[in-house]
Amino acid sequence: MKNILLPTDFSDNSWNAIKYAIQLFKDEICTFHLLNTYTPIIYNVEYVLGYPAQFGLGDAIRDTAQENLKDLTTKISQTFEKNPKHKFITVARFNTLISGVKEYTSEHQTDLIIMGTKGATGAEEILFGSNTVHVFKEIKCPVLAIPSGFKFEKPLEILFPTDLEVDYNAFKIEILKQIAMDNHSRINALHVSTGNDLTFKQINSQLKLESLFKGSSYLFHIYDSMNVTDAINKFQIKAKINLIAMINNKHSFFENLFHRSPLNQIGFHLKVPFLVLPSKQP
């Protein structure tokens, strides 16, 4: 059974991600955890110190969050046919999004987080809002980010950019393998060459990837020296990609995309779901 965490702020973006999750795992036994984190817009020192009851503020906000979660489950049942394989749990917590997700995943088995995302500026070339980037960085759980307005399509073609410099055993790639197997996907591993021959370590990593995805359709592609984002965009032009997966390795190009780059320099012209695979280290 899969445990899928669905953070929601009741926006169109989060609803879009919930719909994607339900459709992606329609044939899987899943428990979906609908998590809403909330904080009062205005509160005073007494509230912070633990005396919200005398003001009634905390109770009112919590009650509103719980009512919204109840309405959300009703919306799900009205939108989708009842699936005996799916179970929904609702949770409202007084917390920030990042802290709330981190706390919840530490308390509960979580195989995947699926969340909607929209660029903070609203510009199409800016893929990820700050909340999504922080989740990528700080949460040690696979995260699948669904772009605003993306309509569900089976992930038949998955792009997996890699520098072949990582130990794949140290990362949580099982969910990617499961998604590929369940959807009969083709994994397109993409390596951007530096102009030099592959090192011994990279060749071993290439062979390791082939063995990891044994049983799935798998192709390995090499592009000549170019920016990784340019390579991703170039590949998407020639092939219909339904999902991009990337390892969150701070010592590879992922760091350049999400750990060093200012948010407004993240230049994926990307309109497909993006799966981030973290390391297994705590």
From TrEMBL:
Q: Which domain of life is it from?
A: Bacteria
Q: Which InterPro entries match?
A: Universal_stress_UspA, UspA
Q: Which residues form the UspA domain?
A: 1-147
Similarity annotation: Belongs to the universal stress protein A family.
The name under which this protein is listed is Universal stress protein
